[in-house]
Amino acid sequence: MQNLKIQEEVNSLMALGHHFDEQLKLASVDLGDFSDDDLALLDKCVQYYSLLHIHDFNLNYLRDFYSAKKREYIENRQTTVQQRVELQRIHSSIDEAARDVVILERFKAAAEERLIPDIVVMQRNSQQLATKQALLDRQKTLKIPKDFNIESIIEKVDSLEQR
């Protein structure tokens, strides 16, 4: 009895396999046309069909699946191209920023070479203030006559220089 059930199941599976082969022939599909990866996917699909007890192979489902996969492939390829373009733009920006950094570093080095330390600046300022104060003090002590004409002295100096 058990053998009879097994034999009937094997016969029905053989008939189902023959039916599917006929369906593939109607779609002009030969299993030799598929790569190993595709055959593995088909085997996985068959396993799902058997687990879900689906026995009707509809070619429209396969076409829909193919269309969805093709659309997904095209979208992924478009995304990849866009990301490559964006990556190239980012690399260009990085290169431009690196050139700017080099220029700024040279400017910074040149500026640091010309930089005068704070102590030296403060010393110079104090010396200038001291000199200014000394000159102001000397000017206050200097007595200039009221009839003194600076312009006539400048003219005399100029005439002496010309001789």
TrEMBL record:
GO terms for biological process: cell division; mitotic spindle-templated microtubule nucleation; spindle assembly involved in female meiosis. It comes from the Eukaryota. GO terms for molecular function: microtubule binding. One of its GO terms (cellular component) is meiotic spindle. This is Augmin complex subunit wac.
